[in-house]
Design a protein that fits this description.
Blueprint lengths: L2 E6 L5 H12 L3 E3 H5 E2 L3 E2 L2 H12 L4 E4 L6 H4 L5 E5 L3 H15 L17 H13 L1 H8 L7 E5 L2 H13 L8
Parallel strand pairs: 1-5, 1-6, 2-5, 6-7
Antiparallel strand pairs: 3-4
């Protein structure tokens, strides 16, 4: 496991899982939200975004969290491990609301500078409609995985915690820090 891609519904905890896995495995961490957003919630242009992703995926090792389906074709082939947080809509919506209330007005560590957490109806609608509008893109991308790629489909937060423990437990002793 050298290049790990974590995707899934918003609010599932992709960034939290990525951070914990990076701490345990010592793999470099790439939060795509930090890469995509510019200060003040300004989006990166499509052309610049693709160039940035091409550079990021060429690194030897990484844990990368974020969906950004427009770059699946660049990221999926480079990942040796894909972790898909396929949580239910109510769980994800609850977690997204909880995060918003807890961190409102603060900049999360996985977010670009000057992009504070905010309450946003559009975002909540995005979470609510994620399975209908975005899950098909993920499922289609997963169909093209090679036999050398490992997929973990995680249905709830307990499974994510269990996955972290399994990964660390089975890591070769010589690789442990």
């Amino acid at each position: 496991m050298k290049r790990v891609l974590i995707i899934g519904i918003c609010g599932a905890g992709k960034s939290t899982l990525a951070l914990e896995m990076s701490r345990k495995t010592q793999l470099p961490l790439i939060h795509l939200d930090q890469q995509y957003w510019n200060p003040g919630w300004v989006e990166t242009s499509a052309e610049e975004w693709r160039k940035k992703i091409i550079d990021l995926v060429e690194q030897d090792e990484w844990i990368m969290d974020g969906n950004y389906a427009s770059t699946f074709n660049l990221r999926f082939p480079k990942a040796d491990t894909i972790i898909y947080l396929d949580y239910s809509r109510p769980v994800a919506l609850y977690r997204a609301l909880k995060r918003t209330l807890k961190l409102h007005g603060k900049v999360r560590q996985d977010m670009a500078s000057d992009c504070p957490e905010r309450f946003n109806w559009e975002f909540l609608q995005y979470v609510w409609s994620f399975h209908k509008l975005h899950r098909p893109k993920i499922e289609t991308a997963l169909l093209d995985l090679s036999k050398d790629q490992t997929l973990y489909r995680i249905a709830d937060p307990r499974e994510a915690n269990s996955l972290i423990e399994r990964i660390v437990r089975f890591k070769p002793e010589r690789d442990r820090q």
